Amino acid sequence: MKVWSVANQKGGVGKTTTVVTLAGLLAGAGHRVLVVDLDPHGSLTSYFRYDPDELEHSVFELFSEEVPDRNRLKSLLLSTSHERISLLPASTALATLERRAVGKEGMGLRVARALRRLDGEFDQVLIDSPPVLGVLMVNALAACERLLVPVQTEYLALKGLERMVRSIAMINRARKRRLEYSLVPTFYDRRTQASVNCLRELHRQYPEQMADVVVPVDTKFRNASVQGVVPSALDPSSRGVAAYAKLLRTLMAQQGRSEA
Ligand SMILES: Nc1ncnc2c1ncn2[C@@H]1O[C@H](COP(=O)(O)OP(=O)(O)OP(=O)(O)O)[C@@H](O)[C@H]1O
Ligand SMILES: [Mg+2]
């Protein structure tokens, strides 16, 4: 079971879209996929037509006194519009977690421990995280083998990214293993100077971390979310889906190399 997290401290950069699109492509290729919603706003949960305000059971249970056992964890999973994608949903109770977690031991590893208990159930796990550095994002970063950081190709993106890169460095100091990350440029519009300049600057500042793909602005993403289906099910040949398919090929090749 492989775990990838998608995070950026900046909001609205395409995190949830990245999770949903990659999940759809992986599931389409026959993988059993789990998507985990660690955002108290529950966008990923809402995407698949569940209401985070109404859900009684959610990923919040991972942060109770004891990490739930395998059967309990399995009972928290919800089905989605795609038969091979399961959802560990968020509920709005998650919003209280930052306050509750203060000073409690081991809260940063709850998701990692829970996923280990689900070993064998899934081939690939994708974790969506909130745009805030707190206990939830720390869990997302601690649970994954690789981190994807979507970066909106616009004027203010680089400042936000610096903050995220500093957070990754801080977390790496606390981990035994270095967390590798890939920057995924999103909302790219080659007709605008801001997009072109931002992409050039990203390549200059982060040559090692840049994914060899650019996700274009594509209205199909919003259309898919309106219908609650993964973008590849709505239009597998759209430009946006094609970009994520290319990203996935690169990630799978890297995964293969790290296993070899
Ligand atoms: N490449 C794209 N082209 C056009 N629209 C996009 C693209 N990526 C995402 N969107 C749309 O932009 C909006 C924000 O995207 P998304 O929810 O994925 O961002 P996010 O980083 O998860 O936001 P938040 O920080 O609020 O969780 C959504 O309506 C989504 O459909
Ligand atoms: Mg989101």
UniProtKB/TrEMBL annotation:
Coiled coil: none annotated. Pfam families: AAA_31 (PF13614). This is Plasmid partitioning protein. Residues 1-180 form the AAA domain. It comes from the Bacteria.
